[in-house]
Design brief:
The structure holds 3 protein chains of 3 kinds. Chain B has helices spanning 19-28, 50-58, 79-96, 114-131, and strands spanning 10-15, 37-42, 63-68, 104-108. Chain B is α/β, with parallel strands linked by helices. Chain B has a single domain, classed as Rossmann fold (3-Layer(aba) Sandwich), CATH 3.40.50. In chain B, helix 3 links the parallel strand 3 (63-68) and strand 4. The model of chain C has no long low-confidence stretch (mean pLDDT 93). Chain C has helices at residues 9-19, 93-106, 113-121, 168-176, 186-202, 218-222, 226-231, 239-243, 287-305, 317-321, 328-336; strands at 2-5, 21-28, 31-36, 61-70, 73-77, 86-92, 122-127, 152-156, 160-165, 182-183, 250-256, 260-267. The chains are: A alpha/beta, B alpha/beta, C alpha+beta.
Chain lengths: 332, 144, 339
């Protein structure tokens, strides 16, 4: 359960709307069920009181929405950012993707968000309702009755290995600034690195072959803000609406991951939204791990204006051939 | 295996200011390197987008080598330093996906190193030939 | 009515697959998926596959022609593969109903011969639902999930699978496995159906109705201000359209193979920004227009041209998969609630 309540957030939004600091609020809107929360703009206190929610299903990262929202907005936009969202926020500012002046950030604490798919697996299909309580989730199901689940067991992958509870960008905080925390997020990457190339190939072949090229990973990604993606551009020669074969699946995912190298904050939205549950974060994390390994630790979005590793160099950087060997831990 | 007789196709991206001239010098000096190497001249090694490399594989290359000026000697001061970082990450990623690591290489070859150019190509072609046909990054539609 | 015990099901699979290709839903890391049966595969217990069964007749990508260029000559090669019959085992009532929706599009004049070819060869074993979930609303579109159509209807109980052939094609396949089947009682199936119907009543979306939509309602909904808030956070990805069993838009593209050209068609999504791009420009410039198109097509335009049949079967895939949880139910409730 989240430590901060919906009411506290509405109270804050109300105050800022009423004193004229902001004119609209970017927040989570309740859906049909307990879990299908939609990002939405709220323009009035009434709208907030009617539909605003903040619960364990508010995984959506609002940073990218600011790119479009700030263009249209007349006044300031209030946005509630969880710690990991603030990294994307900073990264977008670094890339000058929106006007900071038009945003009022309220940092809110996050206890980790849960994954509906994981709940379905644990409690069974047919979720009538999910109640977030202090000691876990109470899931009311059609076939198994009420099932109690520990939050820890059904967290989103990214939250299980949360890298930081620190707010790196805010105008105001509700709660603590938080700390960067020790994370095990590279464990899975290491596990793959230790496999033989054949095993790795088989693993990725299996995972990526499920791709339906819906582009949800790209469209939700806060680092993917190109006006026109190369994969949508008929002139690029690589435009493809549906991956015809495993080559195109690989090309799309390699190039997409490469394009966000040094800009990906590892917010995990790509894996969260993938309808086919492809572990896309493992591609991004490989790059992040390699960067840390080859060029020193770098966290995209930790500060505004930092120079990303791929637009930087030193004269004694590792050679590509050594990098491949070091990448799998041979010389590490 | 039936592909044993099939010669590999190697794409070499060569920097206009060094390796391309190095290839020239290799030719002038009558140094042999395999005809399977197809050279594509680029203004700088850092012109090579990761997509170029993947596209080469898609269109049937069995190995892709990227040749640029020695670090510090870039005609544009720093292009090859960026190349080095990009390719380090890209090749590491390809390896992570299970693509044979000997199918890709970066080599620094200056305009004066005709012999190195020929030796590099001989060695690279040998390694790629040993790997056989590129199966892991192939696009079946492009096969004749 | 014929039946076999569930423990004997694999023998049925083995027998069918000896004679023709058999596809059954199996569990993968990414959820259930239809795969070609090979001995030893276990049928998934999941209510539905992540991708719908439309893939069998309208695959995501299909070559339509190839061009061989030699000198100044261009040869057009027909890439159509005449398929043998195949069995789709375990499609649900909603997916089967979706074939009707697709048929109206692809089999009406001019007939899409690629689709028709696959459709002719497909034999559908449709499985009744016994455990519908909260995202199900097939009921709203008049589908009875306990009475699936198809060449063979099937019902599953705790320990047995019941079969009833509805067509000659279906009977033929059942005849193949006749040795493995015994006579089943209608009563058992009826009580199974009744149980499911009790569950259906409890579903949160059981009261959903499309009555306020249908042909002739274009003017009523087209300019509704609610489209703005409904579409505002739409990412413009193609998830909903690609998991949808009834979405049938496609694009035809040419791929340059380096030594020729392959012409193929692939699914397209009205959510994509280039969907309506033409030489003169793009008439749908905003996500609002694209989003509206998708739902108007399902709820108004399609029924208008197809005797009131809605282009949604209530399978609930978009409810489960949309990255921002916006879906047809929310659209229907928001727009319909006003009138």
């Amino acid at each position: 359960m989240q430590k901060i309540s919906r009411e506290t957030l509405i109270e804050k939004a109300k105050e800022l709307l009423q004193n004229g600091t902001v004119s609209s609020v970017l927040g989570w809107k309740a859906g049909e069920f307990s879990y299908d929360v939609t990002p939405a703009t709220f323009n009035s206190v009434e709208e907030l009181e009617k539909d605003f929610v903040y619960n364990d299903f508010c995984g959506a990262n609002f940073s990218k929405y600011l790119v479009k929202a700030t263009i249209k907005a007349e006044g300031k936009i209030l946005v509630f950012l969880k710690p990991c969202d603030t990294y994307s926020f900073n990264q977008l500012l670094t890339e000058h993707r929106f006007n900071r002046e038009k945003v009022y950030v309220v940092g809110i604490p996050c206890e980790g968000m849960v994954d509906v798919e994981a709940i379905r697996k644990a409690a069974g299909e047919g979720i009538v309702s999910v109640e977030c309580t202090n000691d876990g989730l109470v899931v009311d199901t059609l076939y198994n009755g009420k099932v109690k689940l520990a939050e820890q067991d059904v967290l989103l992958e990214r939250c299980k290995v949360c890298k930081s509870k620190k707010h790196v960008a805010y105008d105001e905080l509700l709660g603590d600034e938080g700390e960067v925390i020790e994370s095990k997020r590279f464990d899975e990457v290491e596990r793959l690195e230790k496999m033989t190339p054949d095993e790795r190939f088989a693993f990725w072949q299996r995972e990526l072959s499920r791709c339906i090229r819906c582009n949800a990973c790209r469209d939700i990604c806060p680092a993917c803000t190109c006006e026109q993606c190369v994969f949508n551009n008929p002139k690029s020669g690589v435009e493809n609406k549906a991956a015809a074969n495993s080559f195109e699946e690989k090309m799309f995912h390699i190039i997409r991951a490469f394009h966000v190298v040094g800009r990906c904050t590892d917010c995990g939205e790509c894996s969260r939204v993938c309808p086919q549950n492809i572990p896309l974060h493992l591609l991004n994390r490989k790059f992040i791990k390699d960067i840390d390994n080859f060029y020193g630790e770098y966290q995209a979005g930790a500060e505004v204006g930092s120079r990303a590793p791929l637009v930087n160099y030193t004269t004694d950087d590792i050679e590509a051939s050594d990098a491949v060997r070091k990448g799998d831990g041979e010389n590490a | 295996m039936q592909i044993e007789n099939k010669k590999p196709l190697i794409v070499a991206f060569c920097c206009n200011w060094c390796s391309y001239a190095g290839a020239d010098l290799a030719g002038n000096n009558r140094l042999n390197y395999p005809a399977e190497v197809k050279i594509i001249r680029v203004p700088c090694s850092c012109r090579v987008n990761p997509m170029f490399i993947l596209r080469a594989f898609q269109r049937g290359a069995d190995g892709v080598i990227l040749c640029g000026c020695h670090p510090g000697d870039c005609h544009y001061t720093s292009g090859n330093y960026y190349t080095r970082r990009r390719m380090a990450l890209l090749f590491s990623m390809l390896d992570y996906l299970g693509i044979e690591r000997d199918r890709t290489r970066v080599e620094w070859v200056s305009a004066a190193e005709g012999a190195k150019f020929a030796a590099t190509m001989n060695d690279f072609v040998e390694k790629v030939t040993a790997l056989g046909e590129n199966k892991r990054l192939e696009d079946l539609r492009c096969k004749k | 009515m014929r039946k076999c015990s569930l423990s004997n099901l694999s023998a049925v699979f083995d027998k069918i697959s000896e004679n023709l290709a058999l596809y059954i839903p199996v569990d993968t890391n990414g959820g259930a998926k239809f795969e070609k049966y090979e001995s030893g595969m276990v049928m998934s217990e999941a209510l539905n596959t992540v991708r719908s069964a439309k893939d069998f007749f309208f695959p995501q990508i299909e070559d339509v022609a190839a061009f061989k260029v030699e000198g100044k000559n261009i040869e057009v090669v027909d890439t159509r593969v005449i398929k043998d019959d195949f069995v789709i085992f375990g499609a649900r009532a909603c997916d089967v109903k979706a074939f009707e929706v697709l048929d109206n599009v692809f089999l009406s004049d001019p007939v899409d011969s690629y689709y028709a070819n696959r459709r002719e060869h497909g034999i559908i074993f449709a499985l009744s639902c016994s455990k519908p979930v909260e995202t199900c609303f097939c009921n709203a579109f008049g589908i009875d999930c306990t009475e699936p159509k198809g060449d063979v209807s099937m019902w599953k109980t705790e320990s047995e699978m019941y079969f009833k052939a509805n067509s000659e094609k279906g009977e033929k396949i059942l005849a193949l496995v006749a040795d493995l089947l015994t006579d089943g009682e209608e009563k058992v199936v009826e009580s199974e159906k009744a149980k499911t119907k009790e569950v259906l009543k409890k579903l949160p979306l059981s009261n959903l109705s499309p009555d306020k939509f249908g042909g002739g309602k274009t003017k009523e909904y087209f300019d509704d201000p609610a489209w703005k808030s409904l579409s505002e956070s739409c990412l413009g990805c193609g998830t909903c359209t690609f998991v949808c069993p009834t979405c049938q838009c496609y694009d035809v593209k040419d791929f340059n193979t380096g030594h020729g050209v392959v012409r193929f068609r692939c699914w397209d999504s009205c959510m994509y920004s280039d969907f309506t791009k033409m030489a003169h420009g793009n008439p749908r410039l905003t996500q609002l227009e694209r989003f509206r198109q998708r739902f108007m097509h399902k709820l108004v335009y399609y029924p208008e041209n197809n005797n009131g049949l809605f282009m949604c079967v209530g399978c609930g895939r978009c409810l489960a998969k949309c990255p921002i949880s916006m879906n047809i139910v929310k659209v229907m409730k928001t727009l319909g609630g006003k009138n």
